[in-house]
């Protein structure tokens, strides 16, 4: 394991090496090595604090050594500890433990990377089950249409043997017989056309609905997952999975799977007809089959892995687009157009390289199958001519055989080409089922409790929260009375937003419990619980649409009078009326047509409309000017009235009206009280307030404390 910090927390490269007999350490390049023989009483433990990890080697008497590292090395540290523990306990070299990747991100954010399998396509059956009747009809039509298409070659035998060859020998043509055979050919062709049209339409209809159900189920499942899942995912990757991957599966089901089924039926039924006509000639026909089967097995795995890489690289391209198009203002502000074009070109080139490798395999496979089928046709010609010369079969039999052989090999060649589409669909299905198989870290209760009337009393008991391998909150005890306003203050990274997220149940506490009106919030249905919570964020998110639609987002059936009343209370009515279409004005992508203060007031109106019992204000006035802040503060005064309110603010002056202030430091509550009381104590809050009054950055009470914002950690 590499260590990247020294004991004074300066960046420095070091190395830890674990063998079967001892642990060795080198703290810097060129420094002497230290060694400790492994012993039963020796332990290797890790701790984390504020983004810094600590690894300690101890025996039963004292600490022998310790090393520091950043969280980037956490995975290596956990693997090292796992190997050490198994060696110390005499369980071998812990290869199995080392093979398991350590989870260093948020719980539940990572997905196990297993190779895609064609069997993933069979899992689509649960989406096909509601349409089993239509599928049965489609399969029956496929069977009948395949049988109808096999009739024409069979009728060529009597045409050759009973009409054309006798005519060459001087016997007049029997036109009644000709009309009979030609009529049979026409009827079989019409029947094949009608049956093929019917089965194509029905199966395409079914596949489109399976694809639609798959997209809906995947998106619905995504909406049920906690924020922890999205913290480790790229937007472009998820869009690609729901969009292009489901489209590819739908195309496979509607076209390629149908072709595959038809080809299989044609091959089986043609083989049966050929064997009934002449077994020896039929066996000559099947000579290329083992070689083609071996080729398919050889190529299938390479194509499957290749197409999964193609999917992942394509998701990278989508990620670049999802980053730069919404962030185009920042790109242009910093004149980084060239850099983003270069980033896109690099992703595109990786996509090109992966596709080239797949195409190299496919370009060799497809012509080889064609060559084998052509060779098989030559074998049939040679063997057939030899049998005709020995009068073992007639020319009509050979002609019919060649007609069947042509269809047989055409279908065989087509079926081998479907291998490519099958592996593409299998890779896509695997990526979609990776989402569907993920279990939310914020589950619905098995036996839900329903609150008839929410009062808004919140109680936190020994609440702790671990994000990945870092403890963000610990030992939080707090009681909030109904209608009380609580202000959360503290250094950046002290856990304020994390605590608000836990109360919203965006995440579940790792330790302890949170209750609403005496009921653990984990016992309440999630949607029912959150309908009682209104959230106003520092950066309000508005959806593309009208102002009225955005205000009514939490209550879609709200009347125009209710929307206007909420806007008036949020001090937004006046500026809305100044817009060209008033409440029907479009706000643009993410509300870019409005100023920051206007977006914030629409966000407040959105929270007012649902009339929540609990209100979360997360830096609601921190990014606006003083005049706009005054307008927003008036709107907030209307919003918080009579509601249990939890407000987070860096501007401590905005929290003077709070009933109590809760001061957080290093994930713990260090002070609780009113503004005047806390100033009189001259403690942590007074230090923060005085530093802010002087316009200075507050000093952290711990030199190791990393002031990164907890929002960045969680999101």
Explain what you see.
It holds the Pfam family ABC_tran. Residues 90-114, 690-715 are annotated as: Disordered. Its main location: membrane. Keywords: ATP-binding, Cell membrane, Membrane, Nucleotide-binding, Transmembrane, Transmembrane helix, Transport. With 715 residues, the protein is of the alpha+beta class. The chain is 54% helix and 15% strand. The protein has helices at residues 74-88, 95-99, 125-128, 132-149, 151-168, 175-224, 227-231, 235-277, 279-285, 289-324, 328-333, 337-389, 395-436, 496-503, 526-530, 547-551, 560-569, 573-577, 596-609, 626-640, 675-681, 684-693, 710-714, and strands spanning 2-5, 11-18, 22-26, 34-37, 43-49, 52-58, 63-70, 458-467, 470-480, 485-490, 511-516, 519-520, 533-536, 614-618, 644-648, 660-665, 668-673. α8 packs antiparallel against α13.
What's the short story on this structure?
The chain is built from 23 helices and 17 strands. By secondary structure, the protein is α+β, with helices and mostly antiparallel strands. The strands form four sheets. It has a six-stranded mixed beta sheet with strand order 13-14-15-10-16-17, with helices on both faces.
């Amino acid at each position: 394991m590499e260590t990247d910090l020294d004991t004074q927390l300066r960046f420095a490269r070091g190395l830890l090496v674990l063998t079967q007999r001892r642990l060795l350490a080198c703290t810097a390049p060129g420094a002497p090595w230290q060694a400790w023989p492994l012993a039963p009483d020796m332990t290797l433990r890790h701790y984390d604090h504020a983004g810094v990890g600590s690894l300690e080697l101890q025996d039963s008497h004292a600490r022998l050594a310790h090393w520091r590292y950043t969280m980037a090395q956490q995975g290596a540290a956990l693997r090292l500890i796992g190997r050490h523990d198994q060696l110390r306990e005499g369980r071998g070299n812990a290869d199995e433990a080392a093979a398991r990747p350590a989870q260093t991100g948020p719980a539940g954010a990572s997905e196990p990377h297993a190779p895609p399998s064609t069997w993933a396509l069979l899992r689509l059956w649960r989406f096909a089950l509601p349409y089993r009747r239509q599928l049965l009809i489609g399969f029956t039509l496929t069977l009948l249409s395949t049988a109808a298409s096999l009739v024409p070659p069979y009728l060529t035998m009597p045409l050759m043997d009973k009409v054309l060859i006798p005519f060459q020998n001087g016997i007049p043509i029997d036109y009644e017989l000709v009309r009979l055979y030609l009529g049979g050919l026409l009827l079989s062709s019409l029947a094949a056309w009608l049956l093929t049209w019917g089965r194509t339409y029905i199966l395409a209809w079914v596949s489109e609905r399976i694809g639609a159900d798959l997209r809906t189920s995947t998106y619905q499942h995504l909406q049920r997952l906690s924020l922890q899942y999205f913290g480790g995912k790229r937007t472009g990757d998820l869009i690609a999975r729901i969009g292009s991957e489901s489209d590819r599966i739908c195309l496979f089901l509607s076209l390629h799977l149908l072709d595959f089924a038809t080809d299989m039926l044609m091959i089986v039924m043609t083989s049966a007809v050929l064997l009934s006509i002449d077994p020896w000639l039929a066996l000559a026909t099947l000579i290329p089959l083992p070689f083609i089967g071996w080729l398919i097995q050889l190529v299938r795995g390479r194509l499957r892995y290749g197409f999964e890489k193609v999917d992942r690289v394509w998701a990278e391209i989508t990620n670049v687009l999802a980053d730069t198009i919404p962030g185009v203002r920042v790109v242009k502000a910093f004149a980084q157009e060239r850099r983003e074009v270069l980033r896109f070109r690099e992703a595109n080139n990786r996509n090109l390289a992966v596709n080239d490798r797949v195409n190299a395999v496919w370009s060799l496979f497809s012509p080889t199958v064609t060559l084998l089928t052509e060779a098989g046709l030559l074998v049939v010609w040679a063997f057939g001519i030899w049998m005709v010369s020995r009068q073992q079969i007639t020319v009509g039999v050979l002609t019919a055989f060649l007609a069947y052989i042509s269809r047989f090999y055409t279908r065989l060649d087509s079926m081998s080409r479907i291998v490519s589409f099958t592996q593409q669909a299998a890779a896509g299905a695997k990526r979609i089922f990776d989402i569907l198989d993920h279990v939310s870290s914020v589950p619905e209760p098995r036996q839900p409790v329903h609150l008839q009337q929410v009062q808004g009393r919140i109680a936190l008991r020994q609440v702790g929260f671990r994000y990945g391998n870092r403890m963000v909150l610990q030992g939080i005890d707090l009681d909030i009375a109904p209608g009380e306003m609580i202000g959360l203050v503290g250094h950046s990274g002290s856990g304020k937003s994390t605590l608000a997220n836990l109360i919203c149940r965006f995440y579940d506490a790792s330790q302890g419990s949170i209750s609403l009106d005496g009921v653990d919030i984990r016992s309440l249905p999630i949607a029912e619980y959150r309908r009682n919570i209104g959230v106003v964020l520092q950066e309000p998110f508005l959806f593309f649409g009208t102002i009225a639609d955005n205000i009514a987002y939490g209550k879609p059936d709200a009347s125009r009078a209710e929307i206007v009343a909420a806007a008036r209370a949020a001090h937004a009515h006046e500026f809305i009326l100044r817009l060209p279409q008033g409440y029907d004005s479009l706000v643009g992508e993410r509300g870019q047509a409005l100023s920051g203060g206007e977006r914030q007031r629409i966000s407040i109106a959105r929270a007012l409309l649902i009339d929540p019992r609990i209100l979360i204000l997360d830096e609601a006035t921190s990014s606006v000017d003083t005049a706009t802040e005054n307008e927003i503060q008036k709107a907030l005064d209307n919003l918080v009235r009579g509601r249990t309110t939890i407000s987070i603010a860096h501007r401590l002056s905005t929290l003077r009206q709070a009933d109590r202030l809760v001061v957080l430091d290093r994930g713990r509550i260090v002070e609780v009280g009113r503004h005047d009381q806390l100033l009189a104590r001259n403690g942590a809050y007074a230090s923060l307030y005085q530093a802010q009054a002087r316009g200075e950055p507050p000093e952290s009470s711990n030199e190791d404390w990393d002031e990164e914002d907890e929002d960045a950690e969680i999101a």
